[in-house]
Amino acid sequence: MTMITRGLSVSVTVPDQDAALAFYRDVLGCEVVVDAEAWPGARYVQVAPPGSDVGIVLLPPDSEIPRAVRLGTASAQAAHDRLRATDATLHNDEVLHLEGSPSMFAFTDPWGNELVLMEE
Asked: How far apart are the first and last CA of the chain?
């Protein structure tokens, strides 16, 4: 079974989300994909180059939203179960089901890279 279906986004750390949004949108020409409050106090801003399926998530240094590579998967639960038996470090005991968001979970690969798998 193929666990990963596609790349969704990568995160970058920015000191000011509004200034970063203006730069990525107005200077680089990216389109705003999402600008919303993921949960109280956690702003999620994602931009993407025109026509790109892969976004750039603009996160402040103190964000509780993981700075990670976000990847798509057909089944977050099946992927979570499969990764439980590997050298990956799961950040959640269970798949997260946040209102208005796809099922997802965060983990660290054996080399310390942060990843998030999101159900498509």
From this structure: 16
- What residue ranges define each of the domains in the chain, with the CATH number in brackets? 6-119 (3.10.180.10)
User: Residue 42: phi, psi to the nearest 5?
Assistant: -120, 95
Q: What is the pTM of this model?
A: 0.88
pLDDT at 1: 61
Q: In angstroms, how far is CA 93 from the centroid of its own chain? A: 18
Q: CA nearest 102: which of 117, 82, 114, 81? A: 117
pLDDT, tens digit, for every residue of 7-26? 999 999 999 999 999 999 99
The helix/strand/coil state of 24 is helix
